[in-house]
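Supplementary Methods S3. Complex input for the S-adenosylmethionine-bound model.
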Amino acid sequence: MIDFWLGGQHHFPVDVAAANAFEQAYGPCAPVFGELRAFLGRAVREMAEQGVDGFLVFGAGVPTMGNVHEVATEATVLYTDVDPVTIRLGQSILAGSDRAGYGFGDATDIGTIDPAQLHRFVPGWGRRPVGVVFLGLAAFLDDATLTRTLDELYAAAAPGSLLAVDFDTEELACHPQALAMMGPQFRMRPPAAFAPLLGRWAPTADGIVPVAEWRPDGPPARVPDAFHGVLATRAED
Ligand SMILES: C[S@@+](CC[C@H](N)C(=O)[O-])C[C@H]1O[C@@H](n2cnc3c(N)ncnc32)[C@H](O)[C@@H]1O
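Predicted complex, serialized as structure tokens:
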């Protein structure tokens, strides 16, 4: 669905049908997801400018339309997800790349990632600073799981690593039919409730803000504040 909204080529008729049904309940989604992907781009560019040359991406979805390896063009990138169809699609898209790979990875348990893939595409994991991309995932994890997961990532990543993370705000609650489509496990959070979940990860001075307002390249786009995002750093021990 996100690939469809971003104008990509890697989706199926069932995705288009679901995207159209969601838009009937919510309104246009392309601008909202465009801003979310633009936030990914600006955050990844910032990480690369700080010297990060290896990225680990959780809940990656379809690895195209301005995704991490297309932004950080010198870096190596491991995309991970739990959905077998997404993983197979990602692997076929990246088959010709020697810089980006795709494999299974449950974000809540980094031990599920194939160590060979991890060390190939995120060399020095745990020893040198890397970029951790955790976008579009928080809504599917309860507070306790998210807190534990982010803390385990903090412990596993080397000092100097950077984390890009976002979450769904309560804006979707204004669209009850659309909210119902997300299922009972879908979690929205007010920004003040998200900050403590970051644990030891320290937000940059940009803070936790609507994604369109995170270091915008020009005047921020006027889109619903459906997602807030933050870039956070892992301090020295
Ligand atoms: C809303 S999509 C976000 C895709 C992409 N990150 C983006 O922001 O456009 C959520 C993705 O997270 C994946 N996912 C859900 N639970 C997960 C988990 N525990 N670990 C890893 N991926 C998960 C889903 O399969 C799906 O591809």
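The chain is about 35% helix and 15% strand. The longest strand covers residues 162-168.
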